[in-house]
Amino acid sequence: MIRLFLCALLAIVALAQEPVAARVEAIESLTPNVKRLRVRLPKSYKFEAGQFALLSVPAPFVEAWNAKYKTTLASVRRPYSFASSPKRLPVAEFIIQLAAPPTGRDVPPGIASTFVHNELKPGDTVGIGKAMGDMNKAGTGGTRPLVMVASGTGVAPFVGLLEHWFRTKQHKGRKIYLFFGARQRRDLMLDEQFRRWAAKHKNFTYVPALSDPAPDDKWTGATGFVNVVLDKHFTGTLDADILIAGSPRMMQETVKVVKAKGVPDTQVRHDPIKVAP
Ligand SMILES: Cc1cc2nc3c(=O)[nH]c(=O)nc-3n(C[C@H](O)[C@H](O)[C@H](O)COP(=O)(O)OP(=O)(O)OC[C@H]3O[C@@H](n4cnc5c(N)ncnc54)[C@H](O)[C@@H]3O)c2cc1C
């Protein structure tokens, strides 16, 4: 009896891990190497703002990849953050950067991001695993400012969280900041959207920062790495809930900055750097 119960439990757990089939509704370019993917999920699928899920690369694509690049990849799943509010379910969005080979290395590009950028098209289905992560738990119930720090597509969970908070009027009485680092203006995805939100919601401050603006950018905003811009913005001590997403290097540097300003570990939140598929 106990064995039967355990088998049933394992089957339920295994089923819960199974990806669901999501239908692709649209794919659009946000920057030269970032696309926004909009999917329609089954009605039963749930996620919370700021969470992420594993996207499965179909086996035939992996087999063709192995043949082309002489690799030996088996099943391929990669985590991507929901970049939309769960209020829009069954529709959800992701923001995905094409992972180019590291400079000077003769290696293949990233498989999952290549699949999304070059293969997926509206009408296709794609496997999405169950939602994970607890970015949404940041500062629940507190009154401290919420400070988000992102670089590149690390901004994705914050797009979802901000959209959700503004829709539901959550954290209306708190100051909310988004520090967003990119290299050049063309990499500053959704800049217009963030500026519109900042104009509409008086408690929201948007601080874009370019690390290497192009002359044509005519950039008059903050320059330098986003962690340095954050450091300069808050002089003295800081009592805030901090959310960080982006490159591991930026995350490490940002943790150092906020710790030096007296923010305790319990008020700093970020997703895991790697997620086992
Ligand atoms: C919690 C979490 C959330 C995330 N959310 C997002 C998100 O919202 N948006 C987003 O764009 N990304 C996100 N990511 C990153 C994403 O999961 C993938 O890591 C990313 O898209 C690269 O996956 P890939 O399969 O395309 O590249 P991979 O195939 O994993 O390759 C990664 C890199 O390695 C290089 N490479 C390939 N072969 C070799 C080799 N032999 N030697 C050296 N280098 C090699 C590739 O060129 C590529 O640059 C998230 C990651 C985490 C952990």
SSE arrangement, N to C: HEEEHEEHEEHEHEEHEHE
* Subunit organisation of the chains: single chain
Q: Output the structural class.
A: alpha/beta
Strand content: 25-35%
Q: What gross morphology would you assign?
A: globular
Poorly predicted spans: 1-16
The largest sheet, given as strand count, sense and whether it forms a barrel, is: 6 strands, antiparallel
Domain count, please report it. 2
Give an account of the 3D structure.
The protein is α/β, with parallel strands linked by helices and 277 residues long. It folds into two domains: 15-128, Translation factors (Elongation Factor Tu (Ef-tu), domain 3), CATH 2.40.30.10; 135-269, Rossmann fold, CATH 3.40.50.80. Helices cover 29% and strands 26% of the residues. The protein has seven helices and twelve strands. It has helices spanning 2-17, 59-69, 111-119, 156-168, 191-200, 226-233, 248-260; strands at 20-31, 34-40, 52-57, 76-81, 91-97, 125-128, 146-151, 176-182, 204-210, 222-223, 241-245, 268-270. A six-stranded antiparallel beta sheet has the order 4-3-6-1-2-5. A six-stranded parallel beta sheet has the order 10-9-8-7-11-12, sandwiched between helices. Helix 7 (248-260) links the parallel strand 11 (241-245) and strand 12 (268-270). The longest helix is centred in the first third of the chain and has 16 residues, at 2-17. The relative contact order is 0.15. Mean pLDDT is 92; it is low at 1-16. The site of flavin-adenine dinucleotide has 28 residues, from strand 4, strand 5 and helix 3.
